[in-house]
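Q: For a teaching handout, I want to show students what a protein-ligand complex looks like in token form. Below are the inputs, and the small molecule is fe (ii) ion. Please produce the holo structure.
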Amino acid sequence: MPILDWDEWYETGILSIDHQHHCMFDALNRMYDAVASGEREAKVRWALDFLVDYTATHFRDEEARLAAIDYPALSEHQSEHAKLLEQVQEFRAAYHAEPTAAHANQLANFLVEWIVRHINETDRQYVAAMKAGRAT
Ligand SMILES: [Fe+2]
Ligand SMILES: [Fe+2]
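A: Here is the structure, written as tokens, with fe (ii) ion included.
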């Protein structure tokens, strides 16, 4: 069972961004499911690493697109991304040091809250500017 369901309410209307956000939801759900179904540690580790790497890739892409349109709040947006990646690395290190379901689930729960808030509050703020910059 997914920990975070995609809903059209999360859509920005910018297809490539929505696609990446949707992929982040999927990566998070795969990691959560791997833990919930008692998968081997290697599989959980792989899912967790994929989730973190995909999130970092999305951030880089989003920031490059915001830079391309001279988005005024880019540095604040970058700081939010950087802080999240730092926190996620701490969760990942904790899981690698002690690979328990509790550690993996702490990361999953933390990310659910963060992703929902970030998409709905911070990402939403650039939508008009990105659309005006003809990003698709
Ligand atoms: Fe963002
Ligand atoms: Fe985003």
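A: Two things your students might notice: The domain at 10-132 is CATH 1.20.120.50 (Four Helix Bundle (Hemerythrin (Met), subunit A)). The CA atoms of residues 11 and 19 lie 9 Å apart.
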